[in-house]
Amino acid sequence: MKLYNKLLFGAALLTTVSCTEDFEEMNVSPNQPANATSAQLLATAQYNFADNIGDEWNNGRMGMYYAQYWSSTQYTDESRYQIREGVNQTMWNTFYADVLRELVAAQAIEAENQVVGYENRIAIAEIFKVLTYHYLTDIYGGPIPYSEALNDEIATPKYDTGEEVYLGLLSTLDAQVAILDEANPGFGNGDLVYGGDVAMWKKFANSLRLRIALRMIDANPGAATEAIAKSLDPSNGGLISSNAESALFRWIPGAPNNNPLAEAFKTRIDFSMSEPFVEYLQKYDDPRLMVYADPLLGTTDSYVGEVYGLEAGDGNSNGDPKVVSLPSDYAIGETAPTVILDYAEVEFMLAEIAARGIAGVDGTAEEHYNAGIEASFEAAGLSDAQYQAYLAEVPYVGGDLETAKDAIGSQKWIAMYGQGIQAWLERLRLDFEDPYTGEEIFVAPAGGSVDPDVTLVPFRMSYPVTEASLNESNYNAAVQAVGGTNSLGAKPWWDVD
Fold first, then answer.
1. 365-379 and 384-393 are packed helices; what angle lies between their axes, rounded to 10 degrees?
2. Which of 4, 226, 235, 436 is the most buried (most CB within 10 A)?
3. Could you tell me the pTM of the whole model?
4. Is 159 helix (H, G, I), strand (E, B) or coil?
5. Does 240 map to a domain?
6. What are the boundaries of the signal sequence (predicted)?
7. What dihedral do alpha carbons 340, 343, 347, 353 form, nearest 10°?
């Protein structure tokens, strides 16, 4: 019955979703929900995932605030770290029920029918499950339902530790990369990220494995280094190596399938550019500012960021574009894609790997640092001349690992604008400062944090309160594992500095 319900949900949703050029060919009658195909279920899962990580709540009021890309224009509670429990519950439920369950249902259909290429399609769905669990475990600080989460026979699944989840994800990626066979088909039009390109799913899996490995490298360097070596081994299929290969979810104009941030901005202006972000871009004459933000109304080149974390009513702009710069269409346009993992991030990961002296990287840390900035400029539609001029302002500085992390981290942060959740997590991991002055880039909320356990930035999201009653014993064990309290101030397991 659970599987049937998810088939029903997937088929009903896909009658309204049109996210690729040929997507309408996949639509089915809502009167025939049981005929949902695995491709439709994959598309539903991808849509739900992109919406969950890219919407005004989890991206706008969590990720974009915690990465300090945006400030609040009037309702400031979230920028001062007071969460809305209903939003938190919805995020958790969406990842499990509306993404992972859709993928399980797609895999079940493929396993039953065994049409040519079914191994590829099961593997692609499994890679997307890895991506989803990766978000879950990092957002919630480590322990989550994982090994028992999708077992219909277990009503109260245990919480695996963060390290157990990570090792499981790496093992799964190893297996799926080995399974993917470019001689056989993938999902075709049902794949809204790579259009059925099996080779690209290999590159994505290897690139995701790099992200997971670097996230854990200070906590488990042995396992991380082993995973990095596998991703760098060209026999495993390579990495994302151009902007054209970036993993993106592409929205289309018009509700309900335009970028969810665009939809939010149609009725109200709750977000402005953040003062720390704007001032850092201005500090080094970064032309990406004019791409990421709109100038003040009535000007062509005046940009002002809103003070971060103001108390409501304490000088807030109320979204007045004559007072504060608002986000541009780069992030909030109807067709602005939701980035899952892009080429610039891959280059910055390679730069860090080289800076750490790990074998297997072709090129130096400086070369990959430069390539990461260049990729970001290209994605922003800026010229090579602008890139070269900017690079002269922010040359790579290494010398020691901490300085290298400051240089790489600060530029990675700028390049990841729009990817609030991942940028926040990398902010926590790299803990970078201005590499040239040693000054702090981030600030505490001007109005003070309303969470007694958080001063500068939350380290995790608290578990939904319903878990305490629905899965009490396992919830209690998970809370003990993150420090004894379900707190936003408990560091994730991989943050050992």
1. 130
2. 436
3. 0.93
4. strand
5. yes
6. none
7. 40
| Cα distances (angstroms) measured from residue 477 to each of 134, 142, 230, 376, 484 | 20, 12, 33, 42, 9
> C-alpha angle with apex 304: 299 to 306, nearest 5 degrees?
140
Nearest to 369 by CA among 331, 414, 339: 414
Task: Answer yes or no: is 274 within a domain.
Answer: no
Q: 300 lies in a domain?
A: no
Angle, vertex CA 350, rays to CA 349 and CA 356, nearest 5: 90
Count of structural domains, the chain: 1
Within 8 A by CB and 6+ apart from 484, the residues are: none
Does residue 60 fall inside a structural domain?
Answer: yes
Can you say whether residue 448 is alpha, beta or left, with left for phi > 0 and alpha for psi between -120 and 50 degrees?
Answer: left
Q: What is the CATH number of the domain that holds 383?
A: 1.25.40.390
* Amino acid identity at 275: E
- HEC readout, 174-233: HHHHHHCCCCCCCCHHHCCCCCCCHHHHHHHHHHHHHHHHHHCCCCCHHHHHHHHHHHHC
**Residue pair 238/209 in contact by the 8 Å Cβ criterion:** no
Q: The domain containing residue 359 runs over which residues?
A: 38-253+334-481
